[in-house]
User: Fold this.
Amino acid sequence: MTTFDELAKDAHDERGILRSRNLFNDLIQAEVDAGISSNKILLGGFSQGGAMSVFTGLSTNHQLGGIVGLSCYLLLGDKIKDLATGANKHTPVFMGHGDSDPLVKFEWGRMTAEKLKEMGHQVDFNSYRGVQHGACPEELEDLEKFIDGVLSSKEDGPAAAGL
Assistant:
């Protein structure tokens, strides 16, 4: 089995990840250009989408409203400290992971949350008993509460949320 440290060093297509991050940044910029304040944008996803959302959230220059990573892991973990911009140092991060996930190991998700906390990020890591590589109603309820909390803490005006 691949360990978290091996995953951080050996298992990534760096050029592809950076290209995808740039696409995410272009989408964020398009929302900002349309009048949405970047701090009202939530970036999130499941599995690889969650991994890209967490990575982009750490390495973007846009201050986001929130970051969501479901059943995911940290991309380019051996380089993230150098790639992180600090723009989202105080942005809330919601992570959810089934403790029986056979594809993206629960331990990888937990260790991702720990690494983000070590970097000073505010991470709410939630585990879901018996859940494999998928979501459960409890996770979706927790996510809804997170989104409601993040968006209700922002000033009036349009918001964009995408998973």
User: Anything to note?
Assistant: DSSP finds six helices and five strands in the chain.
